[in-house]
Design brief:
The chain is of the alpha/beta class and 365 residues long. 25% of the residues lie in helices and 23% in strands. The structure holds zinc ion (ZN) (2 copies).
Length: 365
């Protein structure tokens, strides 16, 4: 197309609208939940911001500390309400040391499993020196950050797995009204099975894929319960472990999940008002074609760099094509429905309109 004055005017107008939208988003940010997935190479780091409260989960390797710290400062974080280390491996705890040194932290959550590494010992010593309250959360507990935010602890179990720190990762489900995030650390099959056995409602809009997309995490049963619309993989380009595994990418694609990756997309930011959410990435990836399928959205163009799209919250109730009952996804009868027979409803009205009646066990509205 020729570069005409009109075209230029149109582009300028679109850009102005975009900038205005960004400013109004910033002005109302305190009413929104924002979850940042930081690009820390081969490692994990997530920042949760809600109602002027900040939670940092993991910090990548030690050399990523300054990057995490400047990211926090650039996003207005002058203190952390909670710092979570999902487990003491260096690609999770390392970068937290610089943050602990320089930014006030009100509480640290850790699995509390002995791990003799100089890095982890430095981390524990710093917490001790600074007298920071330190707790070991367990399956079945909740974390009180804000009355409008539900944070459930899905893992580790009270009796931890002994030989594999990854399986004891702190796993959190963060729910803001209708939108939910499942943050899994390096949890693999054993942890997933323990979480499944506990009977949690795992359905989540956004999944931080376990263990950098390794083939030892994200079992088909687990994914069939989570059914994430968006899957975020925190992984470093050309890492030594072959993460993410092709089998995991295939499994996520099979359940129709859009995949965002820190190695391809850079920092990934998801903001929600509790009903809709939008995903913004630092870069548009070369080959993650499945996340640029929003051609109707003028922001999702390569000229502006990042990818942005919005979606509605997940569906609320589930039934089986073999019966006429609808359930909460957490109902024990719902858990028995074969994935192939599942039918999902956005509301009880939606279910009733399709001829379904409430289950007598879980009693949905
Ligand atoms: Zn890891
Ligand atoms: Zn690990």
């Amino acid at each position: 197309m020729k570069w005409t004055g009109w075209n230029r005017l149109l582009k300028a107008t679109l850009l102005t609208i975009l900038i205005a939208a960004l400013f109004s988003a910033a002005a109302t940010a305190s009413n929104n939940l924002t979850v940042h997935f930081l690009d820390v190479g081969q490692g994990d780091s997530e920042l949760i911001q809600f109602n002027n409260k900040n939670v940092l989960i993991d910090g990548g390797e030690q050399d990523m500390g300054p990057r995490v710290e400047s990211y926090l400062r650039n996003h207005g974080v002058s203190s952390l309400d909670i710092m979570v280390v999902t487990h003491p491996h260096s690609d999770h705890v390392g970068g937290l040391i610089a943050v602990l040194n320089d930014i006030p932290v009100k509480q640290v959550l850790d699995i509390g499993q002995a791990h003799p590494s100089p890095l982890y010992e430095t981390f524990l010593t710093l917490i001790n020196q600074k007298n920071i309250p330190y707790k070991n959360p367990q399956q079945g507990q909740t974390i009180d950050l804000d009355p409008n935010l539900k944070i459930e602890v899905l893992n580790p179990r009270a009796t931890q797995f002994t030989d594999d720190l990854n399986q004891n990762s702190i796993v959190l489900k963060v729910v803001f009204n209708k939108v939910s995030f499942l943050l899994t650390g390096d949890a693999g099959f054993e942890a997933e099975n323990s979480i499944l056995a506990y009977g949690y409602d795992l359905k989540s809009d956004i999944l931080k894929v376990g263990h950098h997309g390794s083939s030892s995490a994200s079992s088909p049963t687990f994914l069939s319960k989570v059914r994430p619309a968006i899957s975020v993989i925190e992984v470093g380009a050309g890492n030594d472990y072959g993460h993410p595994a092709q089998t995991t990418l295939d499994a996520l694609q099979q359940i129709g999940s859009k995949i965002c990756r820190t190695d391809l997309n850079g920092n990934i930011i998801i903001t929600t008002d509790g009903v809709t959410y939008s995903v913004t990435t630092q870069r548009q990836s070369g080959n993650a074609a499945n996340i640029s399928t929003q051609p109707q959205n003028p922001v999702a163009t390569s000229s502006l760099g990042p990818i942005t799209f919005t979606s509605r919250a997940s569906q609320q109730f589930v039934g089986s094509t073999k019966s006429n009952k609808y359930h909460y996804p957490s109902c024990r009868l719902a858990q028995k429905i074969k994935p192939a027979n599942e039918i999902w409803f956005t509301s009880s009205e939606d279910a009733r309109a399709q001829g379904y009646v409430p289950c007598e066990v879980c009693n949905p509205p």
